[in-house]
Amino acid sequence: MSQLFSKENKEAFFGPLGANNPVAVQVLGICSALAVTAQLGPAVVMGLSVTVIVAMANVIISLLRKTVPNRIRIIVQLVVVAALVTIVSQILKAFAYDVSVQLSVYIGLIITNCILMGRLEAFAMQNGPWESFLDGIGNGLGYAWVLIAVAFFRELFGAGTLFGFPVVPDALYDLGYINCGIMLTPVAALVLVGCIIWVMKIREEKAAKK
Amino acid sequence: MAFIKNILDNMKPTFSEGGKLSAFGSLFDAMETFFYVPNETSKAYGAHIHDAIDSKRGIFFVIIAMIPAILFGMWNIGQLHYAAINEESSLVLNFLYGLGVMLPKIIVSYAVGLGIEIAIAQVKKEEVHEGFFVTGMLIPLIVPVNCPLWIMAIATAFATVFAKEVFGGTGMNIFNPALVTRAFLFFAYPAMMSGDKVWVNQNYMDSIVGPSADAYTMATPLGQLGAGEAVSYDAMDTIIGTIPGSIGETSFVAIMIGAVILIWAGIASWKIIVSTFVGGALLAYVCTPEVAGFEWWEHLTVGGFAFGAVFMATDPVTACRTECGKYIYGFFIGALAIIVRAFNPGYPEGMMMAILMGNLVAPLIDYCFVQSNINKRLNRAK
Fold first, then answer.
1. Using a CB-CB distance cutoff of 8 angstroms, which residues of chain B are in contact with residue A190?
2. Mean pLDDT in residue range B77-84
3. Per-residue model confidence (pLDDT) at position B43
4. E strands within chain A?
5. How far apart are CA B132 and CA B109, in angstroms?
6. Within 10 Å of residue B68's Cβ, how many Cβ atoms?
7. ipTM value of the model?
């Protein structure tokens, strides 16, 4: 057990959630973070899909890493990711059709998500399956929490709802409150991701001083 | 005036490092330099040339130049209000009503913007920059009279943080912060920034919480044009400014008085102002009234064209710095504003977009002129 949760493994899991976050620190996967975060529901589904796909792809590539010839490794990685993305896309279509319509092409575009190729190349090709699994889950969740945080503020201030349920009381609207239309545009997502990066940088600087 | 100096000198130790109120040191410093020129001079390392007029005094001239537009805007608020409720009124009554509506907007804009600037200056241990004195006055002038105060506060805060402080404060911003405020309002709360309900204040509360459902409606000339209706104002109305519109932008005459003051004081570049008008006039002439809706000279008097050309495009921080570049920069803004008005039915007024676009390309224009000058000199040396 102690080996399964060694210091390195903990770092592989917790690093991407904070100091090594794929979106806020490495600035990867920004396109989908702007595209699917207008509402909380699709953002949660997108975050979970990416988490599952990164984790599975990491495990598969890590098992294959010694048998794959170096010159065709990118193609092999792509085939694995494309297969997983297709499976996830079909599952969503079967069991969560509305969300899959809302996400439209962005589920398919997970194939091109930089986080995936980055983790496969940088981690799974050098490490065993268990470490790779932790790393994949960590990076997926690191991506997911940024998406969910952005979507929370966008949906709350842009539409006055959360998961589609109205949360801003009618009394406030009667007083003259109006939803902020710019929150529903990708501009606001970029600004919010910028704010998250800003906060992370401040925390990083403080940690570096200690 | 000596007693102000005495008060300030007595208060200074309390606000300095280690004093009781050192948390408000930036605020005190701002007030002190607002009243008096600092008594510290540059140290004698290398050559310094000091102009007698520092940026605080320069900014004061801009505010003085805005006074005709501010006063006219206040009178116009009252005039349109009493016309909307069908009551007789006088010059003084119009003016006082306008003052009552305008003052909360000015206070909110300054309180939010300066509050953020002072807080950031205190955290970064820097002086408060004076740039916001102009921005804070421009913001109330470029919003419709019925823009609610809380929306203005949000937009001001957004622009101060994301258009100015993240770039490093006054002098470092790429875009004019007052225009970013307006652009934010325009995209975030389109119902409060366009249409025909927001231009006339019928009820005092309209200016605080926004127009009610049964608000008095009156469209601006460009609004009528955008909707494909006949324009119901004649040229004299648009020149004097007795028309609905954003508070400070309606009167061509008042803005031109401001332009004369700015050019006379050497604050704004006449090159930018003139070339903006030339660019606008030329494009409007080429487009012909059939396409553009107005005669070429009428385009220069309606909407925010004149206000933008005089007070916004000339912002020394965001405009071109090279002298030749200023002609191109101004021409580009004027021409683009008319192109948007004539060819884009979605945006009846193009001045805001044109100036923001101008701000964006200003460094590129500067780069081309500086580089061509370097090449010229290198060739001479061969």
1. none
2. 87
3. 67
4. 161-162, 165-166
5. 10
6. 20
7. 0.83
Distance CA A22, CA A28 (A): 6
Q: Which residue of A has its CA nearest to B212?
A: A176
Average pLDDT for B42-68:
74
Q: How far apart are CA B70 and CA B249, in angstroms?
A: 9
In A, which residues are within 8 Å of B198 by CB distance?
Answer: none
Note whether B210 contacts A175, CB cutoff 8 Å. Answer: no
User: Which residues in chain A have their CB less than 8 angstroms from residue B209's CB?
Assistant: 175-176
- SS3 assignment for A156-201: HHHHCEECCEECCCHHHHHCCCCCCHHHHCHHHHHHHHHHHHHHHH
- The residue count of chain A comes to 210
The partner residue sitting opposite B187, judged by closest CB among A175, A176, A181, is A181
By CB neighbour count within 10 A (0-12 exposed, 13-18 middle, 19+ buried), where does B365 fall?
buried
Closest alpha carbon to B92 in B108, B106, B110, B78 = B78
- 8 Å CB contact of A191 and B190: no
**How far is the first Cα of chain A from the last one, in angstroms, to the nearest whole number?**
32
Looking at the whole model, is its pTM more than 0.90?
no
Q: How far is CA B3 from the centre of its chain?
A: 34
Q: List b or e across A74-85, with b for residues whose CB sees 16 or more CB atoms inside 10 angstroms.
A: eebbeebbeebb
List, for residues A3-50, the tens digit of each pLDDT value.
Answer: 677 777 887 888 888 778 888 888 888 888 888 888 898 899 999 999
DSSP secondary structure, B292-310, as one string? HSS-HHHHHHSTTHHHIII
Contact B148 A181 (CB under 8 A): no
Q: Kindly list the residues from chain A whose CB atom is less than 8 angstroms away from the CB atom of residue B192.
A: 178
Closest by Cβ to A182, choosing from B166, B188, B209? B188
Alpha helices in B241-322 (DSSP H): 252-264, 270-292, 296-301, 305-307
- Residues in B touching A194 (Cβ below 8 Å): 166
DSSP H stretches of helix in B16-54: 25-35
Partner residue opposite B188 with nearest CB, options A175, A181, A194: A181
Q: What are the boundaries of each domain within chain A? A: 16-209
The amino acid at residue B97 is Y
Q: Contact A148/A77 with Cβ under 8 angstroms? A: no
The backbone torsions φ and ψ at residue A174, rounded to the nearest 5 degrees and listed phi first, read -65, -30
- Say whether A182 and B187 touch across the interface (CB within 8 A): yes
Q: Answer whether A62's CB lies under 8 Å from A81's CB.
A: no
